[in-house]
Amino acid sequence: MSGKPRLTYLNGRGRMEPIRWLLGAAGVEFEETFLETREQYEKLIKGGSLLFQQVPLVEIDGMKMVQTRAILSYIAGKYNLYGKDLKERALIDMYVEGITDLMQMILMFPFAPPEEKEKNFNSIKEKATNRYFPVFEKVLKQHGQDFLVGNKFSWADIQLIEAILAVEEKIPAVLSGFPQLQAFKIRMSNMPTIKKFLQPGSPRKPPPDDHYVETVLKIFKN
Amino acid sequence: MAGKPKLYYFDGRGKMESIRWLLAAAGVEFEEEFLETREQYEKLLQGGSLLFQQVPMVEIDGMKMVQTRAILNYIAGKYSLYGKDLKERALIDMYVGGTDDLMGFILMFPFLSAEDKEKQRAVIVQKATSRYFPAYEKILKDHGQDFLVGNNFSWADVHLLEAILMVEEKKSDVLSGFPQLQAFKARISNIPTIKKFLEPGSQRKPVPDDKYVETVRRVLRMYYDVKAN
C-alpha cells in the first residue's frame, strides 16, 4: 500500500544513484532490493515488472516505474524540485541533461578495457573542466544566487553536487579553477537532507569496485 | 515578438529529427539553419549560443535551448502533448525513454563500417521485436484505446510512430507480429498534422546517406571510428 518507494537495482551506484540522491535530498525514505544473481533478474523479467526488461525499477505510488529519466522527472515533479513553470523546467532539464552526459562517462568508466582507462580518465577531466563546470560556474556567477534555477533548490542543484563529488573522486583538485562551484559544493553539502545523505550509514553507495563490475557483467550478460 | 522556433543542426535526421516530428505533430511551423561548414559551427560556438558546445540547438520563446530531451520536454509541455498530470507524464516519459533507446541503436548506424552495419541491423530488429514492440503492443491491447496514454494524443504516440517507421526502413515487415502496432501506425499516420509531415516537401529528413555522414564528421571533427553498440 502507500509505503515507501522501493528501488530494485544492484548494490552499487550505476544508473540508480541519481535516484537515491534525489530521494535523499527530498527527504524521502525508501527501501531497496538488491539484485545479486542472474536468477533474481530473470524472475523479475518473467514476473512482468520490467517494462523493457531493464533496471532501474522504482515502485512508487502504485507504479512500477522504469527508465531513469522518467523516474527522476516524476520524483522531481512530485517533491517540487522541478521549478515553478515550463521555462524553469526547461533550464533544469538543460542543466540536468548536460550533467548526465558527464556522469555517463563516469558510469561507463569501470567497464572499459584497461588499455582505454587512461584515455577515458583524461576525457572525463577535459570535459569536466572545459565543457561542464565552466557553464555552471558562469550561471552561478551571473545571477549570484545560491541555487542554479529560480533562486530555489531544485533537481539541478542535486544533480550538480552529485557530479562534482563523483568527479572529485577521480580528480581531487578538479574544482581549483571554480570558486563559485567550491562555494556551491559547501552550501549544498550543508543542506540538512544532503548532509544526512553524505553521512556514513545513508543509502548512498560507494564508488564501483571490481565486485560490482563482476556482478553487473554476470547479471546482465547478453 | 514570437517568431517561429529556429532549429540549428545538420541537414539530416540525427538527434534533431524527433524535435522536427514533435513540432510538426503539434502543427508548429519552424525554421532551420543547416550546419554545412566547420566555420559555421565555430561561429556558433564563439557566439556563446551552444551551452555545452553541442547541437541540436533550438531558439524558442527567447531561449537558446540545447539538449534534445530538454527541448522535447519543453515543446511537449507547451503544446499540451505531455499528459494531464504527473502520473500521465510519468507514463509518457517511460514510453518515450523506450523508443529513445530503440532509436539510439539506429542513430549511429550510418557511421558504422559496412560489416558492422549488417550486425547492427540484426541488433536493431532483435531489440525492436523482442523488447520494445511487444511492450507497446501490450499497452495498446490492454487498454484498447487509440493512444498510448490517457486516451489522448501525446508525445509518446508521435515518438512511437517515428520509431516504427525508422525500424521499418531497416526491415520492412518488422510489424508483422504486431497487429495493434499496425493499426496504431495507420491511425497516427492519418492525424492531419502527421499526415502532412509524412508527405514529400515537408521538413522531415530522409534516411542519412554518405553525404550526411561526411558533413557531420567534417563539421564536428568527430565520429570517424564508431563502433556498434
TrEMBL record, chain A:
Tagged with keyword Metal-binding: no
EC identifiers of the protein: 2.5.1.18
Domain of life: Eukaryota
A Pfam cross-reference name: GST_N
Gene3D superfamilies: 1.20.1050.10, Glutaredoxin
Database matches in CDD domains: GST_C_Alpha (cd03208)
Domain annotation GST C-terminal: ranges: 85-209
Key words of the record: Transferase
Record carries keyword Aminoacyl-tRNA synthetase: no
Major enzyme class: transferase
Domain GST N-terminal as annotated: residue spans: 3-83
GO BP, sorted A to Z: glutathione metabolic process
SUPFAM superfamilies per record: GST C-terminal domain-like (SSF47616), Thioredoxin-like (SSF52833)
Gene Ontology MF annotations: glutathione transferase activity
Xref: InterPro entries: Glutathione-S-Trfase_C-like (IPR010987), Glutathione-S-Trfase_C_sf (IPR036282), Glutathione_S-Trfase (IPR040079), Glutathione_S-Trfase_N (IPR004045), GST_alpha (IPR003080), GST_C (IPR004046), GST_superfamily (IPR050213), Thioredoxin-like_sf (IPR036249)
PANTHER family: GLUTATHIONE S-TRANSFERASE, GLUTATHIONE TRANSFERASE
Family to which the UniProt record says this protein belongs: Belongs to the GST superfamily. Alpha family.
Protein name in UniProt: glutathione transferase
Species whose genome carries this gene: Lophotis ruficrista
TrEMBL record, chain B:
InterPro entries assigned to the protein according to its UniProt record, in alphabetical order: Glutathione-S-Trfase_C-like (IPR010987), Glutathione-S-Trfase_C_sf (IPR036282), Glutathione_S-Trfase (IPR040079), Glutathione_S-Trfase_N (IPR004045), GST_alpha (IPR003080), GST_C (IPR004046), GST_superfamily (IPR050213), Thioredoxin-like_sf (IPR036249)
Gene: Gsta3_0
Molecular function per GO: glutathione transferase activity
Keyword Cell cycle: no
GO BP term, pick one: xenobiotic metabolic process
Domain called GST C-terminal: residue spans: 85-209
Protein name: glutathione transferase
EC numbers for this chain: 2.5.1.18
Domain GST N-terminal span(s) in chain numbering: 3-83
Membership in a protein family: Belongs to the GST superfamily. Alpha family.
Keywords for the protein's UniProt record, in alphabetical order: Transferase
A Pfam family it matches: GST_C_3
Alphabetized CDD domains for the sequence: GST_C_Alpha
Top-rank EC class of the record's enzyme: transferase
